[in-house]
Design brief:
Blueprint (H helix, E strand, L loop, with lengths): L1 H87 L2 H10 L3 H13 L1
Helix pairs in contact: 1-3
């Protein structure tokens, strides 16, 4: 009788182990699937980040070029204005120039900056 009880216990333990083994394999497969999904999400997010980065860089470049054009245009107009005032040289205009506190050297520096662009 005892050998039968021991045999049944061994059979039950073996069956329990087989069930747990199958459950473990299922869990491993599920973990693998979760890992693959996470990898796909990561790669998709990375691609989205790279696209956003490129758009941001292009926008920054466009903005920088626009700033440069505005600066060149503003300085060009300012220098032309100063030169026109200097050529006409009425007392009122000379007072404006004195109030601006701009030297001939500064005007030359502005011209050089426009040429450098």
């Amino acid at each position: 009788m005892i050998p039968l009880i021991l045999g049944a216990a061994a059979l039950a333990t073996g069956a329990f182990g087989a069930v747990k083994g199958a459950e473990g394999i299922g869990n491993m497969n599920q973990a693998k699937e979760i890992g693959e999904q996470a990898q796909q999400k990561y790669e998709s997010s990375l691609q989205n980040l790279k696209a956003a980065w490129e758009i941001t860089n292009q926008s920054a470049e466009t903005y920088g070029q626009m700033q440069l054009r505005i600066k060149q245009s503003t300085i060009s107009n300012f220098i032309a204005f100063i030169e026109r005032i200097g050529q006409r040289a009425s007392q009122n205009n000379l007072d404006i120039l004195t109030g601006l506190n701009i030297s001939t050297q500064q005007i030359q520096e502005y011209k050089t900056e426009i040429i450098k662009g």
